[in-house]
Amino acid sequence: MEKLAIIDCGGQYTKVIDRKIREAGVYTDILPMGVSAEKLQGYDAMILSGGPASVWESGAPTYDPAIFDMGIPTLGICYGMQMIVDHFGGTVAPEVKTEYGQIEIDVDPTCPLFAGLSKREKVLMSHGDAVSVIPEGFRTVASTGGVCAGVWNEKLRIAGVQFHPEVDPTVHGVEILHNFVRGICGLKETYALEDRIETSIRAIREKVGDGKVVVLVSGGVDSAVTAALLVRALKPEQVYGIHIDHGMMRKNESDLICENLAKLGLTQMQRINAEDAFFHTPLVIDGEQYAPLSETCEPEKKRAIIGHMFFVVTEEAAKKLDLDFETAFLGQGTLRPDLIESGNPDVSGYAKKIKTHHNDVGIIRALRDKGHVIETNWDWHKDEVRQVARMLGLDEEIASRQPFPGPGLGVRILCTDDGKTADAEKSGLLADFMAGQDVPFAAALAPIQSVGVQGDHRSYRSLVILSGAGLTPDFDTLYKTAKTIPNELNFVNRVAYLLNRREVGGTLHSVRSRICREEADLLREADAIVTSEIMRPMADGKCHIAQCFAVLLPVGVGDKFSIAVRAVVTNDFMTAQSAVPGVDFPEDALANIVRRIEAAGLPVDMILYDVTGKPPATVEWE
Ligand code: XMP
Question: If you take atom 9 of ligand 1, which residue's CA is the nearest one?
Fold first, then answer.
């Protein structure tokens, strides 16, 4: 069988490349960046993934230079292209061009990689470095604003692209990858995707035998699929379902989940109310003392506490069932992106941590090392889990349900102390930048940060608030401005637009906030309004939104909190676009949200709409 090697340079989307090539009928292996040319013998082609490093850094990860002498067709993606350029004598440098998000580039359709495409293509970029000098023997076959975005060496059959053809925002990405594997490499369709359900059932039976599994069910499609596969693979008395309400669920969420879970065939199921334990328990995690969640502001600490508490509460519940995890297994719906974003070394030795997902904290990793965690979705992205859910016959309501992160509202209540204002120097830089833009918006730097993913790195940067036309901005110009600001100002990764008035109207300052019942209740009310308005069907009878929620922001002109509305369109959740009113959700939704939040008398200052994609932001704010 013909096979293609994917060299993992630590990119966020390495596994997506792998899937796209397998879907094209070509067998793949993901190999670490340091793989020797000798080990690559027998492969017919290779793809070098993206990655967080810079080729010009002294500490850049090393590779075997002989891999480029093997004479096999090669495609470098993002960092992979920069590796090629650097290896063959060109130059890659910082501050040539920084781009995060979907942009239009010029491509040369006479290059076989772009055969059949038009001269302008929409692609996904996420890079801080760029090519400034292309190597001899290569020609530029794609560019953005005069900067090289693609190289091709006909003789060596080596191509490189600065953008990411593997993800959905690159509109003709599938065609580009097909052009590579078929047109350039001449690989035929010789590989059929394995039967995921059969493989998974076999693996569960092998691992569990006559043992017992305690499966954590959050209500989302991921854990529902894990539970359904366990029920299929094992006897009913071997599987125990546990749902933990940690006090940070959405309005009525836990009731709905428990109703849905009954449909999965789990005969032993319990719901645990653990708000008090989650909010108020001080912990020692990996030898470090942690204050309780209700006294913690730092997002990664909040994530670590919540993830750890999930296990503590589960272990206690297991004890009552006469089980312990020395003998029993823990079942989780962990997805590939959870592990990639958590920087799990078993998934990639080179990827950087973006955020700690609750299902990949230290205590879980230790249990995994002992072989006592069952994760049926370990290799899959969200869209694959949804496919499996449908194949398993799960209710469409579960299969297409919008995700809700394990830490719940805990990562949607941003926490900080009182009275901070935005950095004066950075506010000045923002003002200077806006003065050069011919746009009908004012911009204010907010004194809060949120998490983003930029060039395969985690970022924790400032929020910019745009204002000007209340509920009727020109969304085209708004999205263009929102894209330009993080590309040009390296201290910004998120932009939101002010809906409920035309100007910020004063100095923004932070408002003290901590995880507590009152804050969670306020967010639950706002979130219920936001989701009911945005998650409505469009003209085709379908809801186009992949995920939608409200975020509680500890910032305002007065002493009240503000609310941000987040709504995104995506399939795999590794990238996402901010949903466009009138296109992705009903045009009147934002006005209705403002009206209903005001009518409900919720004590909020600003109501914002998050207009940032992933990258540069993430879907969640923390
Ligand atoms: P981000 O914010 O990384 O989110 O763009 C991508 C998707 O993952 C969800 N998410 C989580 N899911 N545990 C989960 O089970 C977590 O810790 C977690 N953090 C983010 C997020 O809601 C989105 O669907």
Answer: 405
- Catalytic status, residue 78: yes
- Ligand 1 neighbourhood includes 573 CB (under 6 angstroms): yes
Contacts (Cβ under 8 Å, ≥6 apart) of 583: none
Q: Which residues fall within 8 angstroms of residue 225, CB to CB, at 6 or more apart?
A: 333, 376, 377, 385, 388, 389, 392, 394
CA distance 248 to 564: 17
Which residue's CA lies nearest to atom 21 of ligand 1?
405
pLDDT at 255: 86
Distance CA 294, CA 291 (A): 8
Instruction: Assess whether 243 carries a catalytic annotation.
Output: no
Our mutation pick for probing the ligand 1 site, out of 13, 569, 573, 612, counting the most ligand atoms within 8 A of Cβ, is 573
CA 450/CA 452 separation, integer angstroms: 7
Does 262 score more than 80 pLDDT?
A: no
Q: Which residue type, as a one-letter code, is found at position 406?
A: G
Convert 387-449 into a string of H (helix), E (strand) and C (coil): HHHHHCCCCHHHHCCCCCCCCHHHHCECCECCCCECCHHHHHHHHHHHHCCCCCCEEEEEEEE
Among 338, 354, 386, 551, say which to mutate for ligand 1: greatest number of ligand atoms within 8 Å of CB: 338
Which one of the listed residues 166, 341, 519, 622 is annotated catalytic?
166
DSSP-based three-state secondary structure for 386: helix
Count, in order, helices (H) and strands (E) of the chain.
16, 25
In the predicted model, is pLDDT for residue 258 greater than 90?
no
pLDDT at 220 exceeding the cut of 90: no
| Any ligand 1 atom below 6 A from CB of 403 | yes
Catalytic residue among 78, 111, 148, 548: 78
pLDDT digits (tens, 9 = 90+) for 371-423: 999 999 999 999 999 999 999 999 898 999 999 999 999 999 999 999 999 99
pLDDT digits (tens, 9 = 90+) for 523-535: 999 999 999 999 9
Percentage, residues of the chain above pLDDT 90: 93
Residue from 475, 470, 482, 465 nearest 591 by CA: 470
User: Is 612 close to ligand 1, i.e. is its CB under 6 Å away?
Assistant: no
Question: Does the beta carbon of 342 sit less than 6 angstroms from any atom of ligand 1?
Answer: no
Q: 129 phi and psi, to 5 degrees?
A: -100, 160
Q: Which residue has the tokens 């960092």?
A: 79
* Residue 458 beta carbon below 6 angstroms from any ligand 1 atom: no
Report residue 256's pLDDT band, with 50, 70 and 90 as the boundaries. confident
Cβ of 575 closer than 6 Å to ligand 1, yes or no, is: no
pTM of the full structure: 0.95
Residues ≥6 apart with Cβ < 8 Å to 39: 31
